[in-house]
Design brief:
heterotrimer; A alpha/beta (about 280); B mainly alpha (about 325); C mainly alpha (about 300); A: about 280 residues; six-stranded mixed β-sheet; four-stranded antiparallel β-sheet; about 35% helix; B: about 325 residues; mainly alpha; MetI-like fold; two-stranded antiparallel ribbon; about 75% helix; about 0% strand; globular
């Protein structure tokens, strides 16, 4: 079907759980007003793996990830063309509600953005509460489960009623991950989740991603190549041309990308010759 | 920023510089001196009345220049009722309009609507008064008030607000004209406050699968709350001190305090405007200045509160790492 | 394919409450649009009445003649227009230097608590009820200095109202002037005074003029403080030490008077006043949108 497919098959070392959901990007272009930011991206995002998007700043990697749950169009004047499939269904198809898309494809942002007027507890169930009243016992269970999954429970179990903004930066980001996990999405998108954090917090987030891979399909944007090499199974390299429009250079298993990239430009970037 | 930057060059300043700086400094001092003088002078002029009547000045509602009995309770009541009425009507509408400008309107519509609101704020009080006097008050008398009396007037307790003859120039009409006048004030500050809510708050909520309403309800409004309260307080302060428009529609005739909003009344400001030039003796004059002092102090306090609240929202990152 | 685990976006697991949530969202959207519409409708309604009732009053005599005594039809509001212009001119002479000086101080010299206090004071003056300003000027100027109601007292009251508007817009506009410009000038050995007067102020010129014009527009519509200071006058008066007519006072006196002809004149005077204010607002808006440094 696509270029990436055979390589996916090669890399399938772990059995894919029946829970996983894959995504396919087909000819995706994104615009800010009249300006094209990303052109013709086509790639696969396999289930239960971590796919990293790397590239120099301005290459459109954040724009691409924001297109994957229709957050891109939230920006005034921004729009996207092409198809993004979740289990074969186009999330840009007619009659598809972006609200529903975002419920199924969660997102963790570059800067931790807990809701400062809510407690830690309320931050976690913020998404769930949108669907109506929650049973107290059920809510307690979800809060504990989500915070445990986000490796934050032990640190905050005694201050669940404190403001979400009272936590440290790294804790805030894990709170945001817990908040995303609580609504039980199918796919988790992470837009440079550790770029605003210290090295120890970064390590914690990276460990967390490894655990989450068992249950979720993860896409992560990072400007840090070491991070991509450490955490991801697949890596996609993007680059903006002289026209400042981002394009996909190549995508493949992370090991191969970092040891023997097929494209000269990828090699140049990875070896630090530009970027 | 610039001040620090320029401060480094101070050593090498030319001769004219210190004279220039001193004259600028003295100009900048004028507002401070002005405000102090204003408060001091009003206090001085109001003192004879305050000393003579004491607490009675605020608790009684007899206003009798002939026998020199002055109690401002009815005016304070009229001011509070009309201002609160204006606030209650205007605030939801203003926040709605601010949300429209900050979150709903397509880009091409934002400019014209914002300009309309700005223009509403720029229209002089006297013109609102003229319109209220000739258009709103007759409409209230003939249509709105009889309707309210028939519908809401029948409800126990609440009905007391809508009882008595429908005159058209009364507390209700004054409250309504105040609502119209403070609408642009609250709208434009609310818009700034709502705009200052970081995008990552909106996106965080949308990313959880929230609708636009839910994003506003759970992310934007809680974050903006102190600033929105500040905007409302600034509106209230403006309503308290508003003079001409209120004077023209409030009736200026009664010092009774009754629950009905159909009662013609006075506000502090409208008494001052109406009776100032009539004050023929020192104590009468002093009593009127005392009204002005009360108005001044209340509006200063409200302004301070409001500015602190607005600044807290638009400046402070509230612990979120931005 | 993983057909067995395909999840449907259109009929997802959380779909049950989504319809209700969407409905709430739509209702709220309607409410928000309605709120904005009400604001626009109020302005439309005001303008409609002012034009409808005011236009018949406008003729040459309206702009050139003085008001006639009770009951006599005809006459105009020329003394009021002249009075407003005279008082605004004097108010501008008093208020603009103070406002501008305060703005310059806050941006170019002020720092720390002291500047904060001045900024705060300016905000408080902006929030003063205008009637209190009138009482103050009456007590100080009318009673103690001049001894009677006078145009000069009115001008001083208007100047007090202008100061905070000029100061705050001046501060905002001067802050938009890039520091690099100041540095460049100072680096050439130009004194601070020359830098501010010859580089900073000219760069911010458009914005400064805008603030001044806005302040004039606001002061020109003030009524309450003038009632206590300038009082009003039916005759032409060029003596600032005597009671002086003003357009807003004339509107008030005509409106509360008993004659239909006066009412029409009140609407006519309002039309003139609002026409001037709307024109000034549009002009300043046009000017600021064109000013180059604001666009960066």
């Amino acid at each position: 079907m696509s270029l990436a497919k055979p390589m996916v098959a090669e890399r399938l070392e772990r059995p894919v759980s029946s829970r996983g959901h894959s995504m396919q990007i087909r000819g995706l272009s994104a615009y800010y007003g009249a300006k094209k930011a990303v052109d013709g991206i086509t790639m696969d995002i396999p289930a239960n793996h971590i796919t990293a998007l790397i590239g120099p700043s301005g290459c459109g990697k954040s724009t691409v990830i924001r297109c994957l749950n229709r957050m891109h169009e939230v920006v005034r004047g921004a729009r996207a063309e092409g198809e993004v499939l979740l289990d074969g269904e186009n999330i840009y198809g007619p009659g598809i509600d972006p609200v529903q898309v975002r419920r199924l494809i969660g997102m963790v942002f570059q800067k931790p953005n807990p809701f400062p007027m809510m407690s830690v507890y309320d931050n976690v169930i913020a998404g769930l509460k949108l669907n109506g009243r929650l049973d107290k016992r059920e809510a307690d269970a979800i809060v504990e489960r989500s915070l445990r999954q986000a490796a934050l429970w032990d640190e905050v179990k005694d201050k669940l009623q404190a403001s979400g903004a009272a936590l440290s930066g790294g804790q805030q980001q894990r709170l945001c991950i817990a908040r995303t996990l609580a609504v039980e999405p199918e796919v988790i998108l992470m837009d440079e989740p550790a770029s605003a954090l210290d090295p120890i917090s970064t390590l914690k987030i990276e460990d967390l991603m490894q655990e989450l891979r068992e249950r979720y399909t993860i896409v992560v944007v990072t400007h840090n190549m070491q991070q991509a090499a450490r955490v991801s199974d697949f890596t996609a390299f993007m680059l903006a041309g002289d026209d400042r429009v981002g394009r996909l250079v190549e995508v493949g298993p992370t090991d191969e990308m970092f040891t023997r990239p097929t494209e000269k430009r990828t090699e140049d970037y990875i070896t630090g010759r530009f970027g | 920023m610039s001040a620090e930057l320029l401060g480094q060059s101070r050593g090498s300043s030319h001769q004219g510089d210190s004279l220039f700086e001193r004259s600028i400094l003295s100009l900048a001092f004028v507002p401070v001196g002005l405000l102090l003088l204003l408060v001091a002078l009003l206090w001085y002029d109001a003192w004879p009345a305050l000393a003579r009547y004491g607490v009675r000045f605020f608790t009684t509602n007899t206003w009798d220049p002939v026998f020199e009995n002055f109690g401002a309770a009815a005016f304070i009541y009229g001011t509070v009722i009309t201002s609160l009425l204006g606030l209650v009507i205007a605030t939801p509408l203003a926040i709605g309009a601010a949300l429209f400008l900050a979150a709903y309107a397509p880009e091409w519509l934002q400019g014209p609507v914002a300009f309309t609101i700005e223009l509403l704020a720029a229209i002089p009080s006297i013109i609102y008064g003229l319109w209220g006097f000739f258009v709103l008050a007759p409409l209230m008398r003939s249509t709105v008030e009889p309707f309210l009396k028939e519908t809401l007037g029948a409800i126990p307790i609440l009905g007391a607000l809508f009882s008595g003859p429908t005159i058209g120039k009364d507390l209700l009409t004054a409250g309504l004209i105040l609502a119209i006048m403070i609408l642009p004030t609250i709208t434009s500050i609310s818009r700034e406050v709502i705009r200052s809510v970081p995008d990552n708050q909106r996106e965080g909520m949308l990313g959880l699968g929230a609708t636009r309403f839910e994003m506003i309800r759970y992310a934007v409004l809680p974050y903006a709350r102190p600033g929105l309260i500040g905007a409302a307080i600034l509106g209230l302060a403006r309503a308290l001190g508003e003079t001409m428009a209120v004077t023209m529609v409030i009736g200026n005739s009664s010092t009774r305090i009754t629950p009905s909003l159909f009662t013609p009344g006075y506000t502090l400001a409208s008494v001052i405007a109406n009776q100032f030039t009539e004050a023929d003796k020192e104590i009468y004059f002093s009593a009127i200045v005392a009204l002005s002092l009360v108005l001044l102090l209340v509006s200063l306090v409200l302004n301070v509160m409001a500015r602190v609240l607005v600044a807290r929202t638009t400046r402070g990152p509230l612990g979120v790492r931005n | 394919m993983e057909a067995s685990t395909v999840i449907s976006l259109t009929l997802g697991k959380t779909d049950t409450s989504l319809k209700r949530r969407k409905l709430v969202d739509q209702i709220f959207t309607i409410l928000v649009v309605l709120s904005a519409l009400i604001g626009v409708a109020i302005l439309a309604l005001l303008l409609f009445y002012i034009i409808l009732r005011g236009a018949p009053a406008l003729n040459v005599a309206f702009f050139t003649e003085r008001p006639l005594p009770y009951g006599e039809p005809g006459g105009g509001v020329a003394p009021a227009i002249l009075g407003t212009l005279q008082m605004l001119a004097v108010a501008a002479l008093l208020g603009i230097p103070i406002g501008l000086g305060t703005g310059i101080y806050l941006v170019e010299f002020g720092h720390g608590r002291f500047a904060e206090a001045i900024r705060f004071t300016v905000d408080l003056i902006a929030g003063l009820p205008s009637i209190s300003v009138g009482v103050f000027v009456w007590s100080l100027i009318v009673r103690h200095v001049i001894g009677n109601f006078a145009g000069l007292a009115g001008a001083i009251a208007l100047a007090i109202i202008m100061v905070p508007i000029v100061a705050r817009t001046a501060e905002e506009m001067l802050r938009l002037v890039p520091d690099t410009l100041r540095e460049a000038s100072l680096a050439l050995g130009v004194s601070r005074r020359r830098t501010i007067l010859n580089v900073v102020l000219p760069t911010a010129r458009t914005g400064l003029v805008t603030g001044t014009v806005l302040a004039l527009a606001r002061a020109g519509g003030e009524t309450a403080p003038l009632l206590l200071t300038a009082l009003g006058n039916q005759f032409f008066n060029f003596d600032l030490l005597q009671p002086m007519a003003a357009l807003p006072i004339q509107i008030y006196n005509y409106a509360v008077g008993p004659y239909e002809d006066w009412h029409t004149k009140a609407w006519g005077a309002s039309l003139v006043l609002i026409g001037v204010i709307a024109t000034l607002s549009l002009l300043t808006r046009w000017a600021t949108s064109r000013s180059s440094f604001k666009a960066r």
